[in-house]
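Build the 3D complex.
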Amino acid sequence: MTPPQRRRRAPGGDRPAEVPAPAPPGKEGEIRNPERLFVIGGEGGGERADIDLVTLIVARADPPVSATPEQAALLRLCAAPLSVAELSAYLSLPFSVVTVLITDLLAAELVQARASIVRQKVADRNLLEAVMHGLQKL
Amino acid sequence: MDFKNSDTIPGPRTEDRLPHTAEAAVKIVIVGGFGVGKTTMVGSVSEIRPLTTEETMTQAGIGVDDNYGSASKTATTVAMDFGRISITDQLVLYLFGTPGQERFWFLWNGLFEGALGAVVLVDTRRLEVSFDVMGRLEERGVPFVVAVNTFPDAPRYPVAELRTALDLPDEIPILDCDVRRRASSRDVLMTLMRFLHSLAVKGALT
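Done.
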């Protein structure tokens, strides 16, 4: 049996990601409380910190009295460092909503963001060797 | 989730907390079609029970894809499973299993741009499902290896034949794996790391 045939593509042929059209009003139950997501995001609107799924977030202070329930929950979760992806999972909130929450908390200096390592054009060899060493221990 | 009682939100178990010394994280993305074993692979090497991050998706992208035939898959949220491996007290590796369709990729800011590299997990019964994924990675310049998850009833092709079918250059590793086994999944990740290392060495020489 012969497998199906693919054709290789060249780097840089990528198109910019399509911007999704705004959602039409859904039937009841189709979209879960979109208003609520907006409320959680606060009034800051628009501007989001440059936060990656694996940016490590650490609380710098206990939740202030003024914190929203979501902010307080997030601050308690990251008493020890926790990635944004883990925060999203434990809070059961979409990544983008957690990003907005963190942006507000960063501005209020209630959390610290430890930068994720972004792939360079050529990855750092020491970093790759460290990861290989760590995987060997598995 | 009842945020009025935020004290009760279940966080990481004590043993799942990262040390305070953790200062940086890297990620590897595992891409493949539905049911190819992405989550199984994440789970077999992760030190934590795999978690799920979600992102909301607009209606625009829904109903277009044949693979989303079942009602549960047409929800307005898109999920991505992930796991974690502590490399050192300072460095953490995250593994994300993501669907192959690119329209999911931009939902998570920098999912591929920030990744060390990718594993394309393929099922030889549905080889063509992975074609577009590989093309997208090539276009974005994301280095990847190909791991063939060996299902018992799947056709077995010699690597040379697979390489020709997938139109992959000789340097891109292609290997068989059984993602249910931790050692096998680790070997896939090690193969990716060695490949990335060879690219780094080559890059330093030129």
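Chain A is about 35% helix and 5% strand.
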